[in-house]
Design brief:
By secondary structure, the protein is an alpha/beta fold. The chain has one domain: Alpha/Beta hydrolase fold, catalytic domain (Rossmann fold). It has six helices and eight strands; from the N terminus they run βββαβααβαββαβα. β7, α5 and β8 form a beta-alpha-beta unit. α3 packs across α4. The model has no long low-confidence stretch (mean pLDDT about 95).
């Protein structure tokens, strides 16, 4: 249901997958990738946002690392590739690309634009909340957020975090630190999932949990409807 477009970023053009709703969009959401590129799962997330009434833009943030990277989480070799890509990515430059995608969404007529990300993209969505002009931000199991809490003073718009408390990639101590540090901020809402592991909303993933995904996604859409629509 989507198409690829080109976005003019500050360091050069890059592609983005765009999914459009059937009617007039409520608003726009920049959907930020995991470490596997803008793959079928990520394009599916954009399609889901479009079905919920949002113009969804999933920028290819790996464009500096390699061309059109699109792999899965299904083999050990792909996991190694994905982690290498993640380590090679300049995260600060990626946030500027997210801002470019936000700006592109506004140029397409969206009065409000949110950011939503998964895993690495969840971390970038948190940084976007601190650094960009996004109107709302959502992070699913954002790895690394605990290392960027000193930027939280930059949060000016609502933020929603989904934190699985049995995350094999994010220590529970880090998740506790995120909660205790951000709890006083009225703009931040944190949902914790006591029995869930990393990427519990990734269709086809090892830790996928349909019921927990439906719960988290329902909370996300309610949040986006409140903050953007």
């Amino acid at each position: 249901m989507g198409e690829w477009i080109e976005i003019a970023g500050p360091d050069g053009p890059f592609r983005a997958y765009v999914a459009r709703p059937a009617g007039t969009p409520k608003a726009a959401v920049v959907a930020v990738q995991e470490i596997f590129g803008v793959n079928a799962v990520m394009r599916g997330k954009a399609d889901w946002l479009a079905r919920e009434g949002y113009l969804a833009i999933a920028p290819d943030l790996f464009w500096r690392v390699g061309k059109d990277i699109d792999i899965t989480d299904q083999t050990e070799a792909e996991w190694k590739q994905a982690i290498d890509y993640m380590n090679a990515l300049d995260k600060n430059a990626a946030v500027t690309d997210v801002q470019a995608a936000i700006t592109a969404a506004r140029s397409m007529g969206a009065s409000k634009v949110g950011v939503l990300g998964y895993c690495m993209g969840g971390y970038l969505a948190f940084l976007a909340a601190c650094r960009t002009d996004a109107d709302a931000s959502v992070a699913y199991h954002g790895g690394g957020i605990h290392t960027a809490l000193d930027e939280a003073a930059g949060i000016k718009k609502p933020v929603l975090l989904h934190n699985p408390m049995k995350d094999g990639f994010i220590p529970v101590e880090a998740l506790n630190t995120i909660r205790e540090t951000l709890k006083p901020n009225p703009l931040v809402t944190i949902y914790e999932y006591a029995e869930q592991d990393h990427a519990f909303t990734r269709e086809g993933g090892a830790h996928y949990d349909e019921a927990a995904k439906q719960l988290a996604d329902g909370r996300t859409i309610a949040f986006l409807n409140e903050t953007l629509a």
